[in-house]
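Figure S4 source data
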Amino acid sequence: MKARSRFSSIRTKRFSEPAARTTGADWSVGRVVGELRRLGSRRNVEGMARYGIRAAKVFGVSKPKLDALARKIGKNHALGLALWSTGIQDAKILAGLISEPGQVTASQMELWVRDFDNWDSCDGTCCHLFVFARPAWAKAFEWAKRKDEFQKRGGFALAAYLAYRDKSARDAKYLSFLKVIGREADDERNFVKKAVNWALRNIGKRNPRLNRAAIATARRILKKESRAARWIAADALRELQSEAVQVRLRGKERKNGAAAE
């Protein structure tokens, strides 16, 4: 069964930092870890492992419960940093939920990416936090060249999220990233090739111009002597050339054209 990111279908209407939420509760690292332990489930830990989410320290807290706890805590960047340093899988996901994107630095992103040890911590952190940080684009290009499987996945996951969350980015950035996709498409590692495919599909669904460019990139990738490359390209072409995607993009083009008149 495919491991599907529980963050890959989350959409927002615009590219902006989530509004800060505060509460009067005094949340210490110890209190949060105790709450995570209470909310965890051995059954969830086993279920996560079946989907390729394995960590040395994990309580098995479900995503809805993590979301609810994050709302109780509110935004707290210092607490997020402290929770990440515990190395507990659930605490790391929670850290991405409560940290403040405006305070995220390139140095923090570098420290955290080195702790990505499964696709869940990678995708969750990129989805909820890193995609909103100022260094997001630079790190997407930088990490896509990394050797480590999950650091490299982080680069392509960031690009995939930016493709539908950064509404202000010009096409030139995505056209440049398509070249990176073409270069890295022969990586046979499971969690890398899936992220490369994910970024290619999301870029190709932004607008008609990028759809054409992504399809052309996929056709070039299809010619590579690599099973990973052929899978990435064939899967992307099925979606990008589908009637559903083409109809949606034509509608978007008509809407934009009418707005420009």
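Figure S5 source data
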Amino acid sequence: MDMIERLDLLEPNDYSPEQKLRWLRSLDGKIYREVIKTHEDVWQPFPEEYTSGEETLLVGEPYGEDLYYYYLQAMVAAENGETQRYNKRMTLFNSAWQGWVNWYNRSHRPHGQGGFRF
């Protein structure tokens, strides 16, 4: 709920907390499928759904705060039909995404990267 409260404080909107949780779950699904699951050390199962707002998001500090915040801002702008605002937020999100992905790839071994076998 911290991320949702931050969004609502800094960018008031009419979307329900449940909708924002669905957006966050959707992003975490992408993170899990496209990045975490492609590496050997998958450290936790992916939750079925986010309902309480007490769930722990997959990306922690220092990357998570910007990643999730810019994503929520972009989703609000998209739903409001604010194309220019959406594009700006997605640019910020993509930069945060790439920073986290680069760190994750440096810090975790991808599947099939164990060396040579004879």
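Residues 2-48+58-107 form one domain. Helices lie at 2-10, 17-34, 64-79, 83-107.
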